[in-house]
């Protein structure tokens, strides 16, 4: 396909709009504004217009939704139930418009009504019902399941407040409630008739029934009601719509009138407050006993309600439970829903009278488990005492599962006490705790990692002995992202360029991106590509100026690290290199330095003090560098607060360099690496998570790999964590650590970062010091490549053209075929991805 002149702004010709459809949509929006919002156009706010437009769109989605439901029920299709404590769905308005094919019509209709779509989109709050990659992955998977026309339900919690709103005050993270429901939510439909009882506490009695079978009767001490709220999730082209069902908690009786009438007004609503606390906030601080109990209550609450719901649906369609595994596939997204193993067993045995062996066979065949971490501290464990108090019947079931499981372990390795202790559901070494990762593993027929390296390491590390006992259960499903949001919506300029070079079919089949490879060396196309990137960088520069008052040169190299703040993700390594570069520029100001903008964004867990200290260091370093006249525009450091999906949609298309620098062997997969690569950023990273597969797809010459590999990390840790040897050999690193330690960046509190300096010298668990020199040299290689201009652009284009395999459609198709045993729509089958040219 011919390339336009490089002097032209790249635009595809737009097809003419259907005037009748346009008039119908305008009428529908005004009707919603009047009848649903209760406002006249002259008095309506932007938020009123947004809500009216969203409701008009929702009407059109609901029709498709009902048709999808009817078709799947009529066909008796197997359903997928995706259980996740997090769903980071972000804004839905333009996403749904795009997938329904109504974006141009609504844009024109709102323009005719005197309001702009881009402004109305900002009225929608981000539904921050997730912490980061885990929740965003769940959202991408829900969209891909709808796109592939897989009948599915997502199940989670309707948190009153999402992940906290992050505000940076004098460089420190401050947490505030995220009131995403403050103006209501036009996308959800409450289902007041869908209510389930969820029980806690109490005692268990055992009896023998008329057939001589022992039965357990749970007499709970507390009951909480789960109320359903449904949000439609639209697949591409609007062909299929699935539901995301979120549960809200309430007490069966909201007010104790007898207590209220005694004058104890707070006591009269205490049980309501206790119930509502379950859905009040995502990830309560679990440092306290009360916080740990609330987390466990949250997990059981949504698991119990979800399983009751799907069993009721199955019984309505099938009339019996023997076929459950043939008609329902339940995916546990991380360890949070692990209680599904015991809850499904409890329901089958206690409520439906099944024998243990039959119930266990159905449970294992129905459930599958996705592991997202190799960090032992992230594999949840709960004190046995907490289980005894909150979920006594489930603890009994866990003991019974463990008894049978340890019998197999003993048969496998007779007399091996250490092996039995390793695979046991009860960790006896840490004060008797229930291992939830083990429970999910034992109770599932398939356990998958989320990148090839991660799945292999699962077999060698956290689940080594379980893999030996149950060989063949672990499989790999490398993560993916939905290109509809992370290319089409986030980067319309690049999307238009892709359509012009790859054809309109690229919108349906991302593998067609490989046609862009033929233009990677074309100077005219390279200029088009650079023009798109520059416009995106100008937009981000404007946002940084508005938020932080920092003037950014859009022609500089935008070096981006956006992710949760955690020691293993090594923002600290990036900061140290920034400090070293700062001193190098000051030492040789006459050199032709590549101008850089270091862009950080991400939240630290509220209780993670060290991560919050790293945020403070980033901001203190930024304050020094950005105000140093000797540096001018050669180096800027930016921390953008309150990272969320909408902010990511601005940062990612503007990024030139993607920082994926986790300690090798510690990142399960990553999806930010995929989003940035798809949008034309080169990756600097370790051989960790999906970086390995990205290297294999984009070509080793188009990615910058540095640092130790996973086995080398293990070997160095075995020798000790002291890093004085590597610091002694690295003048750049030694100088940077001295600056941090001596208060150069914290003159108001010289000892503020002493703990960081001490860890870098003597407790280098995450190999920040050990990998520094390799990282610093890789960054200087990035400088050289950036200076080469066309070579950088060619590598960026090749990254885009070779990223198609990382579509979440591919990932979900693999789940469907290998784990869930459900068909996908043939129309969604992609063409083979062309192998990267070496």
UniProtKB/TrEMBL annotation:
Protein location: Cytoplasm
By its UniProt entry, which Gene3D superfamilies does this protein fall under? Glycogen Phosphorylase B
Alphabetically list the UniProt keywords.
Allosteric enzyme, Carbohydrate metabolism, Cytoplasm, Glycosyltransferase, Pyridoxal phosphate, Transferase
> What cofactor(s) does the depicted protein rely on?
pyridoxal 5'-phosphate
UniProt EC number: 2.4.1.1
The family database entries (Pfam families) matched by this protein are listed as: Phosphorylase
UniProt-listed GO biological process terms: glycogen catabolic process
Q: Which reaction does it catalyse?
A: [(1->4)-alpha-D-glucosyl](n) + phosphate = [(1->4)-alpha-D-glucosyl](n-1) + alpha-D-glucose 1-phosphate
Q: Which GO terms describe its molecular function?
A: glycogen phosphorylase activity; pyridoxal phosphate binding
Asked if the record carries the keyword Cytoplasm, the reply is yes
On this chain, the residues bearing N6-(pyridoxal phosphate)lysine are 675
Q: Does the keyword DNA-binding apply?
A: no
Entry GO CC: cytoplasm
The entry assigns this protein to a family as follows: Belongs to the glycogen phosphorylase family.
Q: What does this protein do?
A: Allosteric enzyme that catalyzes the rate-limiting step in glycogen catabolism, the phosphorolytic cleavage of glycogen to produce glucose-1-phosphate, and plays a central role in maintaining cellular and organismal glucose homeostasis.
State the name under which the record lists this protein.
Alpha-1,4 glucan phosphorylase
Species, as recorded: Rhodopseudomonas rhenobacensis
Taxonomic lineage is: Bacteria, Pseudomonadati, Pseudomonadota, Alphaproteobacteria, Hyphomicrobiales
């Amino acid at each position: 396909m011919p390339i336009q002149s490089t002097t032209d702004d790249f635009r595809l010709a737009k097809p003419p709009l259907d005037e009748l459809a346009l008039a119908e949509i305008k009428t529908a929006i005004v009707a919603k504004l009047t009848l649903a919002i209760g406002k006249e156009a002259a008095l309506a706010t932007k938020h009123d217009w947004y809500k009216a437009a969203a409701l008009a769109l929702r009407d059109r989605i609901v029709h498709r939704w009902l048709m999808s439901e009817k078709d799947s029920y009529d066909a008796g299709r197997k359903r997928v139930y995706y259980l996740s404590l997090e769903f980071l769905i972000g804004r839905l308005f333009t996403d749904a418009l795009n997938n329904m094919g109504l974006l141009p019509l609504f844009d024109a209709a709102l323009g005719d009504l005197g309001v702009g779509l881009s402004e109305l989109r900002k009225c929608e709050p981000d539904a921050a019902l997730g912490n980061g990659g885990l929740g965003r992955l769940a959202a991408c998977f829900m969209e891909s399941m709808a796109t592939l026309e897989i009948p599915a339900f997502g199940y989670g919690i309707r948190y009153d407040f999402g992940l906290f709103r992050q505000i940076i005050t004098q460089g420190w993270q401050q947490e505030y409630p995220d009131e995403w429901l403050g103006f209501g939510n036009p996308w959800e439909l409450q289902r007041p008739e869908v209510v389930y009882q969820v029980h806690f506490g109490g005692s268990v009695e055992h009896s023998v029934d008329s057939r001589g079978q022992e039965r357990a009767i749970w007499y709970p001490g507390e009951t909480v009601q789960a109320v359903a709220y449904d949000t439609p999730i639209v697949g591409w082209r609007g062909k299929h719509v699935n539901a995301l069902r979120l549960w809200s908690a309430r007490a069966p009786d909201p007010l104790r009138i007898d207590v209220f009438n005694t004058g104890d007004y707070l006591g009269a609503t205490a049980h309501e407050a206790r119930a509502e606390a379950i859905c009040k906030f995502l990830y309560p601080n679990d440092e306290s006993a009360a916080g740990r109990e609330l987390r466990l209550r949250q997990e059981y609450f949504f698991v119990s309600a979800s399983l009751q719901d799907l069993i009721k649906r199955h019984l309505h369609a099938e009339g019996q439970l023997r076929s459950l595994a043939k008609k329902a596939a339940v995916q546990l997204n991380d360890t949070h829903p692990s209680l599904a193993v015991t809850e499904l067993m409890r329901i089958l045995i206690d409520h439906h009278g099944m024998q243990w062996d039959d119930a266990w066979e159905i449970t294992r065949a129905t459930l599958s488990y996705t592991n997202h971490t190799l960090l032992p501290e992230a594999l949840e464990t709960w004190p046995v005492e907490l289980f005894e108090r909150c979920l006594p019947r489930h603890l009994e079931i866990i003991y019974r599962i463990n008894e049978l499981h340890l019998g197999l372990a003993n048969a496998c390795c007779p007399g091996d006490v250490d092996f039995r202790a390793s695979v046991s559901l009860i960790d006896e070494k840490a004060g008797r705790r229930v291992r939830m990762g083990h429970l999910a593993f034992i109770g599932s027929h398939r356990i998958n990692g989320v990148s090839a390296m991660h799945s292999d390491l699962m077999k060698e590390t956290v689940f080594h002995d379980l893999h030996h006992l149950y060989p063949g259960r672990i499989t790999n499903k490398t993560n993916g992202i939905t290109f509809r949001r992370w290319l089409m919506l986030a980067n319309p300029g690049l999307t238009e360029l892709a359509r012009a070079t790859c054809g309109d079919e690229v919108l349906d089949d991302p593998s067609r991106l490989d046609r862009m490879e033929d233009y990677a060396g074309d100077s005219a196309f390279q200029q088009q590509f650079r023009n798109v990137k520059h416009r995106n960088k100008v937009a981000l520069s404007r946002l940084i100026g508005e938020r932080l008052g920092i003037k950014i040169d859009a022609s500089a190299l935008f070096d981006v690290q956006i992710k949760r703040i955690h020691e293993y993700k090594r923002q600290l390594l990036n900061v140290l290199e920034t400090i070293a570069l700062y001193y190098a520029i000051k030492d040789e100001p006459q050199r032709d330095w590549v101008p850089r903008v270091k862009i950080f964004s991400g939240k630290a867990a509220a209780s993670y003090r060290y991560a919050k200290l790293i945020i403070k260091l980033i901001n203190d370093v930024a304050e020094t560098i950005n105000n140093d006249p000797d540096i001018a525009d050669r180096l800027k450091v930016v921390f953008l607060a309150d990272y969320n999906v909408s902010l990511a949609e601005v940062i990612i298309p503007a990024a030139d360099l993607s920082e994926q620098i986790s300690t090798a062997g510690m990142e399960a997969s990553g999806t930010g690496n995929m989003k940035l690569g798809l949008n034309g950023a080169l990756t600097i990273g370790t051989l960790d998570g999906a970086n390995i597969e990205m290297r294999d797809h984009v070509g080793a010459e188009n990615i910058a790999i540095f640092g130790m590999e996973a086995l080398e990390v293990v070997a160095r840790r075995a020798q000790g964590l002291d890093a004085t040897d590597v610091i002694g050999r690295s003048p750049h690193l030694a100088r940077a650590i001295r600056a941090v330690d001596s208060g150069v960046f914290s003159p108001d509190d010289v000892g503020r970062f002493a703990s960081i300096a001490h860890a870098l010298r003597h407790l280098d668990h995450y190999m920040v010091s050990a990998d520094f020199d390799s990282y610093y040299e890789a960054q200087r290689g990035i400088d050289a490549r950036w200076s080469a201009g066309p070579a950088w652009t060619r590598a960026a284009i090749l990254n885009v053209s070779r990223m198609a395999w990382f579509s979440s459609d591919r990932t979900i198709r693999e789940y469907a075929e290998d784990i869930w045993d459900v068909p996908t729509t043939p129309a969604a089958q992609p063409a083979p991805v062309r192998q990267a040219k070496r």
